[in-house]
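Quick start: read one record
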Amino acid sequence: MSAMTAASGINAFVGFRPQNGVKRASRVRASVARRVANPIVAVATPSGKKSANEGEKNWSKVEHIKENSDFLRHPLIEQLATEDPFISEDAAQLYKFHGGYQQDDREKRAFGAGKFYQFMMRTKQPAGTVPNKLYLTMDDLADSHGNGTLRLTTRQTYQLHGILKTDLKSTFQAVIRNMGSTLGACGDINRNVMASPAPYARNFKPEYAIAQELAKDIGDLLAPQSGAYYDVWLDGEQVLTVEKPEVVACRNDNRFGTNFEGSPEPIYGTQFLPRKFKIGVTVPGDNHIDFLTNDIGICVVMKNGEHVGYNVYAGGGMGRSHRNNDTFPRLASALGFVGKDDILYAVKAIACAQRDYGRRDDRKQSRLKYLIHAWGVEKFKAVTEQYMGKAFQPLADLPPFTMPTYHGWNEQGDGKLWYGVHVVNGRLRGDAKKALRAVIERYELPVRLTANQDILLTDIDPAWKSDIVATLTAAGVKDASGIDALDQISIACPALPLCGLAITEAERGLPDINKRLRNIMNKVGLPADEQFLIRMTGCPNGCARPYQAELGFVGDGPGSYQIWMGGTSNLLKLAEPYADKVKEKDIETFFEPIFYAFKTGKNADERFGDWANRVGFKAIKDAQESYKGLPAAAKAAAAPAAVPASAAAVVPAGRLPRVMIEREAFEVLKAYAEANNTTLTEAATAAILKLKK
């Protein structure tokens, strides 16, 4: 364990030599004990260097900030009280743990005035579950304290953008007092626990309720305990929270030396985790949440209709850095099966192994995936089993996985319905936001947020259906069946102008890119309903999981993307980098040869990702180099192809022309686009075409 553990005078392990009388678990099988007979030290630091967890010299700056913060209190409390529009860098690091980021709106900077500071707040919604009261509160806050929009994230949470420092405390207080929380939504801690959000009744498809309940229990288990959250935002006022006795028992269980005894943070200690930590829970056959991209991936196991336990996987993660081959995306590796009464202990053991052996010297190497990569799965499994006090069993068999969208009208199994509403890249604004608010408030509906940035309206009485449809349709909210197949499942991160890591556009850029890709597909003769899984991020951190896409766009420069291909529609295989520095202006010339090769070379019903894996990148690059344009027969065949209305609004040919307009005109255009839930390109096109009349 780390030096900080030993210095605290608590029960600890040095490798697997128990101190202070802690005995090895009697439940550990002899075979497990043999595997770990040799003490393991924190070997995740490269040889020749002192362990990142042994002493302060090799800690990153963030580790010192955490150590000196009194469990995430200082200097955040003091910085929030100043008259500056910003908080210090140290306070900003702590603010992440409380649920947000300090941001700079690059497009609102005044000349010579420096950064335009504002704050983002992210909620924590296990399984994406949102009570009616909290939805209405978030909708109100978006208008009163934010920028008028609500952002649905790829991890089933809300993000509220545009909060000024003077409004931060009142914003957090409103969330906390209306059935919400933001604690641990960011920072070196367990983040929001994802789960398949479909609201099936327990007596209809019980595995979904089991997964969603476990997500909440894990969120409770790994939530910070010191009370700093309430000291910062409620001036020490405590809020009653209810946890299951088994969650409390697991957190306090120190039979295997996992806890910091006597500490306000029994699991995290002063240093919390080395880096962000993500967990996802799914059900057999349903991979909506990309569960293998998490630090811990869990799948409910059912046998003859009864819940028997869980398959457990560890070491997934998307983040990487350009031109740094020591960083990479990774899918979680199988650890094994545990019974249903052991899952919380397995999760705690994995988190504690990462806490004690994950690197704290280099934050680019601090995720669990790098520890498992350095150790190997078996070594990590041995450590985890010792912390758990029990061995993993062989994985249970599971059916093939698919990625459902949950769009449209569905039966919950209890006489009620749910309706899955597609939200373009998760941004709720304008008339669509108002219409959703109206039906959610009118019928007191709870909602679920999905991993694809969509929203599910739940517990709908069938008698309400026609009114809900009429209200949403009047506001321009389309049923998913009327949305282009590319748009239905594509997702993007926020990127510019608020994310400090963004290199180029993502959320604002993907809708037009999708339209241009659809036009190319139509040109080469692909069916109008051909669907690719497309994802876009403005930087390589991978928040929208582009490394799992059939076609991924990863920002690598202004107006430029690294292209990844070869992910699969069931989200069980990583994509691979295909090309660097593909300019946005060159989308047509770059993809036309690829799509034509796919059209002419794919097998029946073969998807783009599967085709790319089968033929290989060399064959695709050869097809690009030898492409001379569409043959005459192909042009004739493609000409009558039907184009969906949603794809016909913008028909670029090669590079789009660029037109300079006055700032006042731009602001009017931007306001119109936001109010009508459309893109700047579509708004400008519609306005200009009116001049023909």
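The CA atoms of residues 249 and 477 lie 47 Å apart.
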